[in-house]
Amino acid sequence: MTHTFSRRALLTAVASLAATSLAPIVVRAQDAATGKVTLAGWSKPISEITNLLVEPDKGFFKAQGIELVYLPGSGGGDAIRNILSGQADVAFTDPGSFFMALDKGEKLRAIYDIYPQNVFNVVSLKSASIARPEDLKGKRIGVYSLSSGTRQNLLVMLHQAGLTETDVEIVVTGVLNFAPLLQGQVDATAATDTGLLVGQRRGLGEVNVMQVRDHFNVSSDLFVVRESVYQQKQALLRAFLKAYRDSAAWMIAEPEEAATLATKRAIDGTDRAINLEVIRLRNEAAMASSGADGAKRALGTFDLPLLQKAADAYRDLGLIQQSIDVASVVDNRLLPES
């Protein structure tokens, strides 16, 4: 009896010890997939990112155990700086800002292709007679900020005409930058498709539009994280990307509802009709195929060969000095399976 009791006591003690040892591991695994994620944006909370702004209404991130915090910015470079400083976990940024940070030796990784299509342009009044990139020489050109995708893509367009930044005068005008154009403070302004749409609906008038994608059609925006965050928080990032994809799919499926909610969530969302047009443009960009073969890909999926061409082009343009092996800094493995 004594022998049997001792053996049972030993087994009970071992089981208890095992349970105690395993408990923290289970808790850590759960914690890794839930928690707060601060997203550093390139912009203020505007209507084109309505799928993020409606979190209080729709709870896409809450459903995945994520507390979403949106940190506004003034350009893709701003978003990168906010993750490098530790103020944010994920950057909503443009490829140019991503490449430039990598060129400076920063350890970063892109994990989601937000808009697999170039949405940037350069706009001028018809009276300015600016119809080709060559016509920009000697002109004053507005950009959202010096760290924005508008500036990076303007530089790409200038290069197509054999021009550099020194051949023009760049003027920081802010995101809603068509007033300076109308007031004659700039001769042309670098913008996005949604920015142009809003300007036209608010009386911009007849303009010439040069689309950057006609010269350089690469993704407009990516989600980027520090390499250390990528290595340490993969479960959390998977949950974040699942929530984001769900929110993007909702906005694609329900643009009317999104336009209505934007009236109370977006700082520029007072006009529901304009919200709807902006949202539809962004939905098109999110769904665009980035593949040279025209094949459609799941939301968020990178076209690595095309992104490599973009990185090579930035080096050829002199915008970065180092060659970038895109496959080593871009990863689709955290994307949700469905």
Average per-residue pLDDT, rounded, comes to 87
CATH architecture assignment of the largest domain: 3-Layer(aba) Sandwich
CATH class of the largest domain: Alpha Beta
What letter string, H or E per element, gives the SSE order?
HEHHEHEHEEEHEHEHEEHHHHH
Number of helices, counting only DSSP H or I runs of 4 residues or more:
13
Number of extended strands: 10
Overall shape:
globular
Order of strands, widest sheet: 2-1-3-10-4
List unreliable stretches of 5+ residues: 1-31
Rg value: 24 Å
Q: How much of the polypeptide forms β-strand, as a percent range?
A: 15-25%
Largest sheet: 5 strands, mixed
Number of domains: 2
Describe the structure.
The chain is of the alpha/beta class. It has two domains: 31-117 and 218-328, D-Maltodextrin-Binding Protein, domain 2, CATH 3.40.190; 120-214, Periplasmic binding protein-like II (D-Maltodextrin-Binding Protein, domain 2, 3-Layer(aba) Sandwich). Helix content is 44%, strand content 16%. The chain is built from 13 helices and ten strands. The strands form two sheets. A five-stranded mixed β-sheet has the order 2-1-3-10-4, with helices on both faces. Strands 7-6-8-5-9 form a five-stranded mixed β-sheet. Helix 11 crosses helix 12 (272-287). Mean pLDDT is 87; it is low at 1-31.
